[in-house]
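ok here's S41 family peptidase:
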Amino acid sequence: MGYSKKYLPLFLGLAVGAGVFLGSKLDFSSNPSAKLFSSNAKKEKLNRLIDYIDYEYVDEINTDSIVDVTVNRILENLDPHSVYIPPEELEGITESMQGDFIGIGVSYYPYKDTISVINTIRGGPSEKSGIKAGDRILMADNDTLYGEGLVRDGLANKLKGELNSQVQLKVYRRGTGIFDVVVKRGKVPLQSVDASYMLNDELGYVKVNRFAETTYKEFKNAITTLIDDGAKNMVIDLRDNGGGFIAPALKMADEFLGDDVLIMFTKNKKGAIENNFATSKGSFEQGKIYVLINENSASASEIFAGAIQDNDRGIIVGRRSYGKGLVQREMALGDGSAVRLTISRYYTPTGRSIQKPYANGNKEYFNEYLERYKNGELQSADSIQVADSLKFKTPAGKTVYGGGGIIPDIFVSKDTTRVGETLNYLLRSGFIGRYVFEEELDKKRDFYNNLSKQEFQETVTISDDFAEGFLKYARKRRVEIQLKNYQSQLKKYLKAIMAQQLFGTNEFEKIINNDDAMITKVLSLSKEE
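and the structure:
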């Protein structure tokens, strides 16, 4: 950094002041309160002080880094969900929440110093141009994409580009050799609906992984198809869905609630209340609704679950949700960065806030998640701590509680063996995927590429040797996992990731959900009612 540690407190103090100054530069042009951020003498003083440090201080100081530290420190002292987004992260976050990006539409990873196509996005540019799973992309225009110097982080930028721009790829395919293909870049969807299919003749299932700009459209298409397939009741799976935009959650809830029913309301620092009501657009206002949640379901997921629960519209199944009831707005800081600032709280229709306490700081706030493991809450509903002062009643007289998450109507305990957690970790890390690709699919590409979904489900089985081979594969790469006594679960995950690479997330979820505890509970409930 170029300065003595003894000056750090001074710089942090100055940085706090600089953060106040930066606050005056926030873009509130669309807000009538913008006049509050006009220039004044105090802000000019802080601005001048930063200039003195920049131009006159004896040591070289990166004032940009001071400002970044300042913004983070200020936000940390507000609440756990007001955050600073640096320029280098903002584009990726924006793409994720928009629900699409401009690219060629392939899933890939570097394998033996080449770009190996795992699968192509259905209907995307690469599929239309004839790219297939198992192909190796060797070059993109004049950029070489193979060799020992292959750097994964830069690959996406070489394949992305302007909408409708063309990229010439040099591709290797086993049995065909090297050939050229031109791909016109297009919008590539980032799916937020992982799966939608019928659990039985009357029960439809939809899994939503986040709430992005495209989520409602995806969701609407999914339930419309399920209704056409005969769905009279619905399961909405929001497990591990950390939230996102509120608007899609409101529109989703609207599909199930009657006209003018309150979905939720927000309240800002001045006490101004904004109500959100259902409209006449609902397409599924009569059938039974089951909502699956767990300890990782947060924010917009909790808005949806709370609206269904508080209006006595359906049954919430699972474990207590995360407990995030704060609403953020993203505001540009003028240099490519942004701040996501909490501007209000949201409340469920009965008036309860499900935001868990954060007065004791961020560390304790995030550690509360781990406390649920320790106090037994994830194994027993009786261990969930509730306060009578936060008791509310639904229109039908059901008792619900505020103060930290949505408490389910039907509790389903977490797997105490933690095998599922281990397997999910291996999935997220890509470890299982690499094994399946390298040791099976890539070696028998012609066979697997010619299988239909039904043929795959009916004819492909995971052998003991293939499951044992994964454990050896892991040990060879110094990954120690204890799954020898859980071979059936391991086989299920191996087949599921194989299905995902061949056919997409829908087939993956079908296999993973087989014998799933929460879905089994819902199937049982649906028979009883």
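+1. The first strand starts at residue 83 and ends at 85.
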